[in-house]
């Protein structure tokens, strides 16, 4: 339950300081400084390590303590304190929250209010290249864990007064700062209002990452497919805002969330737009072909070898039969074992440090594959099938979508072990039905393919030249539909 803090601020600085001291009892990192301003008592509260002490010493304490005797509290604010970002608050709860957020709180006798000084200065990571979204051509900047740095990186790319940043907080105890960013005359107002409603309903002790928010505001919690796009790249966020979408920033997280998000968004990469349109289109077609291949290749191998051997050319059938001689498992068990080995290997690569992970990936894959073949547990053909599946899987830019498709790949393997090619067809139909029922903030997940909006197909299966992008995506229903004249 949220801690109850009195709202009224006493006229006496010492009474306010005593109350705040009691609130922060046994908190060694909270600094309390009481001093005199002429004949007035004053007090300062901040958290060591989160506030800029130089600014406090040079532009707050020194001017105040050197001021004359007969100065009113209002004159101190208007003439003495040389700090630009300063607010006058009338509720003590707001002041305590400001201290917890890294700001400083000042009490002065007879003011009847308190002052908050925006002098946050906590340790932070420098801006570097995002490791999860590498591109050949484009910006090398990535988000950090500081929310104000992240919004500034986007603001640098959108120099428009209509770019709005609405602050809020989430987490009853953590009081994590958040921000909603959108372009006012482009955004779909219905989506914006729905997002604000869902964010208000978030009621949890702590928000430690943007992934918490994603799980609270997504439409369908039973599907493995993501309905909210996450990214570490400011240029991706800027491009989404220009389309009429909305970005959500959470403090302490280098990942921004973008809503709404459809399946097509997860197959797009910044390289598709920064390179010439022919290259971008070819790569996108390869990407779409790769996901289909990764989805059905192991299941097709199981179906062909178990039920439909007549569809395999004779020489190839003999080669497969010879390679499977001595393998004690059925084809589907063989495929499931290799899928499990691939899942273990991928998880190990992700969790280990980069230099070690890449080595483990290469050496582990070779050793496990060769040892399994030598021991007669799997056939060489199955190792080839698994290798092609792994390569095509890694062509998908978004890891979460890759994981979702891997679940359905296992389902297709099981169906093909009982029904052959008919099982694969039934599984694909089920997958299609599942995708058609998903929505992201009211937008169909398979849009624009299911909306039959022809002009939106310019950026779906291929990427047409930029001069053809006269209007924003129609399926997002932006207010300002024209982006190029």
TrEMBL record:
It comes from the Bacteria. The keyword Metal-binding does not apply. Keywords: Membrane, Transmembrane, Transmembrane helix. The chain crosses the membrane at residues 285-309, 329-350, 362-395, 407-433. The keyword Metal-binding does not apply. Coiled coil: none annotated. PANTHER family: LEUCINE ZIPPER PROTEIN 4 (PTHR22550:SF5), SPORE GERMINATION PROTEIN (PTHR22550). Belongs to the GerABKA family. This is Spore germination protein. It comes from Clostridium punense.
């Amino acid at each position: 339950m949220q801690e109850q803090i009195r709202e009224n601020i006493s006229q006496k600085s010492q009474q306010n300081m005593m109350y705040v001291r009691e609130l922060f009892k046994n908190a060694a990192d909270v600094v309390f400084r009481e001093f005199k301003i002429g004949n007035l008592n004053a007090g300062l509260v901040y958290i060591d390590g989160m506030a800029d002490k130089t600014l406090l010493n040079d532009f707050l304490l020194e001017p105040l303590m050197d001021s004359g005797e007969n100065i009113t509290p209002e004159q101190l604010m208007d003439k003495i304190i040389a700090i630009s970002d300063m607010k006058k608050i009338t509720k003590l709860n707001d002041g305590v929250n400001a201290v917890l957020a890294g700001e400083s709180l000042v009490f002065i006798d007879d003011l009847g209010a308190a002052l908050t000084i925006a002098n946050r200065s906590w340790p932070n990571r420098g801006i570097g290249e995002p490791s999860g979204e590498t591109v050949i051509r484009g910006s090398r900047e990535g988000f950090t864990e500081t929310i104000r740095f992240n919004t500034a990186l986007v603001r640098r790319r959108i120099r428009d007064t209509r770019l709005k940043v609405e602050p809020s907080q989430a987490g009853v105890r953590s009081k994590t700062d958040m921000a909603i960013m959108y372009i006012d005359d482009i955004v779909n107002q219905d989506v914006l209002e729905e997002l604000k409603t869902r964010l208000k309903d978030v009621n949890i002790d702590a928000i430690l990452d943007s992934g918490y928010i994603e799980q609270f505001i997504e439409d369908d919690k039973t599907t493995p497919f993501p309905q909210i796009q996450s990214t570490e790249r400011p240029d991706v966020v800027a491009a989404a805002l220009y389309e009429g979408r909305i970005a959500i920033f959470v403090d302490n997280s280098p990942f921004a969330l973008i809503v709404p998000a459809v399946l097509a968004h997860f197959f797009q990469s910044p390289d598709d737009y920064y390179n010439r349109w022919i290259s971008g289109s070819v790569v996108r077609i390869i990407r779409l072909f790769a996901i289909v291949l990764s989805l059905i290749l192991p299941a097709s191998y199981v179906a062909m070898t178990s039920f439909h051997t007549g569809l395999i050319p004779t020489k190839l059938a003999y080669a497969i039969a010879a390679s499977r001689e001595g393998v004690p498992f059925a084809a589907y068990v063989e495929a499931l074992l290799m899928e499990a080995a691939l899942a273990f290997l991928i998880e190990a690569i992700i969790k280990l440090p980069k230099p070690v992970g890449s080595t483990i990936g290469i050496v582990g894959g070779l050793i496990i594959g060769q040892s399994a073949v030598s021991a007669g547990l799997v056939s060489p053909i199955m190792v080839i099938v698994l290798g092609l599946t792994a390569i095509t899987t890694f062509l998908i830019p978004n890891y979460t979508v890759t994981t979702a498709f891997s679940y359905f790949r296992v389902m297709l393997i099981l169906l093909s072990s009982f029904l052959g090619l008919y099982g694969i067809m039934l599984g694909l139909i089920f997958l299609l039905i599942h995708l058609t029922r998903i929505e992201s903030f009211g937008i169909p997940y398979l849009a624009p393919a299911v909306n039959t909006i022809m002009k939106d197909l310019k950026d779906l299966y291929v990427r047409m030249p930029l001069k053809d992008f006269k209007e924003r995506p129609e399926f997002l229903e932006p207010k300002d539909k024209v982006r190029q004249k």
